[in-house]
Amino acid sequence: MNKKKIISFFSAMIVTMVVLLTSIPVHAADGSNVENIIKNKNMKARILWYDLSANLDSLDTPEKVADIVSKTAQANINTIILDVKNRSGFVPYPSEFSPHLSESLNPKYNWYPQDYDLVETVIEEAKKYDIEVHLNINVFSAGDIVYQEGPAIDNPDWQTIVYDVNRIVTEEDGETHPIHGFDQSRGTDQLVVYTPENNDVTPTNRWGIEVVVEDGTIVDIVDQAIIGDREVPVPDNGYVLSGHGKARQWILDNVQVGEQLDIASVETDLKPVSETAGPAAFMNPINPDVREYTWNVIEELVENYDIDGITLDRARYNNIYTDFSELSREKFEESIGQELTNWPEDIFTVEFNGDEKEILPGPFYQEWIKWRAQNIHDYFEETKEIMHNLDSDVLFNTYVGSWHPLYYSEGVNWGSKDYHPDYDWAADDYNETGYADHLDFLMTGLYYGDVTIDELEGRLPYWYSVEGAADLSMEVTDYDTFVYGSLYLLQYQDRPEDFKRAIRMTEEKMHGIMLFDLVYIEMYDWWPLLEEVFDKKTKAPHSIPGFLKQLRS
């Protein structure tokens, strides 16, 4: 019996005693124990997420890791989720399949020590305090569009194909350029429109160009990249067109004062995600090579490290606009038993209502929504089997957003197969795509600033609160697995008492809690706060063999 098995054996003995003392049925045939243990304050998962990109400079030496893990233990956290593959596909450990952070072109990453193994370091420290370590991988996001790097960029045929619908700007000679957004932050190479309804002046930095338009005519061009930072007023009878990088160059090459501009036209295209304005390059979940790549990453981690679990993040489609590749068209047509005559319009079309996109469902919209969710379900089912064959002691879990009525846009149904949602986009048999029963535990993001339903005062649906999102999470999963609510600490900046209330609400309603993220605890110096609210040690339900066995059966 190896060391890990011995530890597991003695842990099981201790936990069995705890279970008996608290009178909780371990082997209840109807599964009611999974529901009842919510009431047991001694059985709560307390998880702290260590985001890779956000905490690089806090985790780049063994001494820093030792300090952070010690604080984690002192706060009675029983589980660490260590993010080890970021959305760009880079990792902080030696890998046969993933590029190391030190190889990145991104200056935020490439300074990271090449010969330093963060995974091994965190595991070594966590074992001193009997804290579980689960390794998180960003599954279908594996490339940086800005720096054009990462596995998804290196393998263009892996990328999702985006149904790209944009408002475009057209100048007098007919030259056009896509508009990347309205009244939002201007990113690299983007063209953004700022309107008087939302801006007095443009909120941009000096590294771009501003085109002032009144009644459809260009009245001024301010190239801040040359003249320096300057406030540019947004006219009441027009707008300001702001360009950076490639968009700035298009403006310099094509427009001049006195010309007419039009921003009402729409352009539709199918293009690889690497050619869009998004930051992360997603991969097609049904591409066999993509799936094999993700499983290689998982197998490497399970075989090389003594870990407690694998966590999947971004195990989904980018958004509602993917994937419209020929492979997806072929497989979808196979699933419905007929060929589509209009692609992608038979799925949906897009119109603009002012500056906002509106999706108009086509004749196969519901079938498409279900088909995408089924693809993700099948991936989870296969991944579970692969992991159990590699090492059945390694737990399988994932993070999702709690907003189930909206999460179909990512192609995910994280609920129970017994949950039948009543949504206008859901086919009658959409419930078949639920994957909760394939998980050892599930984390749902209760990412709302209002703690109770009453605080919403009817402004929004009930699940736009921590309390409501917790209720919805438990309803949708129907106790098919352990469900832990996640809190986004940035939403509680300068609100420590509300943060405490949110923690208590989550633990009252659910099997445990996940805190996102370590960086904010450090930033706000909230370690004492955690020690106060987590004043006693608890046991994570997923670590109790009897409960886990029941879930898996």
UniProtKB/TrEMBL annotation:
Q: Which InterPro entries match?
A: Divisome_Glycosyl_Hydrolase, DUF4985, GH, GHL10
Give one Pfam family.
GHL10
Respond yes or no to whether keyword Signal is given for this record.
yes
The DUF4985 domain sits at 422-532
User: What protein am I looking at?
Assistant: Alpha amylase family protein
Q: Does the keyword rRNA-binding apply?
A: no
Give start-end of the signal peptide.
Answer: 1-28
Q: What keywords appear on the UniProt entry? A: Signal
Q: Which residues form the Glycosyl hydrolase-like domain?
A: 274-396
